[in-house]
Amino acid sequence: MPDSALTPEDATLVHDFVDIPPGLAIDRTDVQRARLAQAAGGRFRKVAPGLYEIITHAPDNPTA
User: Fold this and answer.
1) Which long-range contacts (CB under 8 A, 24 or more apart) does 18-22 make?
2) φ and ψ at 9, to 5 degrees?
3) Residues 24, 49 contacting (CB under 8 angstroms)
4) pLDDT digits (tens, 9 = 90+) for 4-56
5) Which residues of 26-35 are buried (b: 16+ CB within 10 A; e: fewer)?
6) Distance CA 42, CA 47 (A)
7) CA distance 64 to 55
8) Strand partners, 58
9) What φ, ψ does residue 35 adopt, rounded to 5°?
10) CA 4, CA 37: separation in Å to the nearest integer?
């Protein structure tokens, strides 16, 4: 599901809590991970479709 198919609220949530590298599309699983990260107070990094890493520290550059 491309980013444009998400609600604006979902897209904002994903962008706030899931690091997605260029070339990977946002999907519904990203929204689930973002909600989990928001509830737990963490972040995820999408490595590949369906594959995520848990980020346990604050990013060095939050705008990256």
Assistant:
1) 18/43, 18/44, 18/45, 18/46, 18/52, 19/43, 19/44, 19/45, 19/46, 19/55, 19/59, 20/46, 21/46
2) -65, -40
3) yes
4) 588 999 999 999 999 999 999 999 999 999 999 999 989 999 999 999 999 97
5) bbebbbebbe
6) 16
7) 14
8) none
9) -65, -40
10) 22
In the structure, what pLDDT confidence band is assigned to residue 1 with cuts at 50, 70 and 90?
Answer: very low
| Element containing residue 51 per DSSP (H, E) | strand 51-55
Q: Can you give the length of the chain in residues?
A: 64
Structure tokens at 59: 């990013």
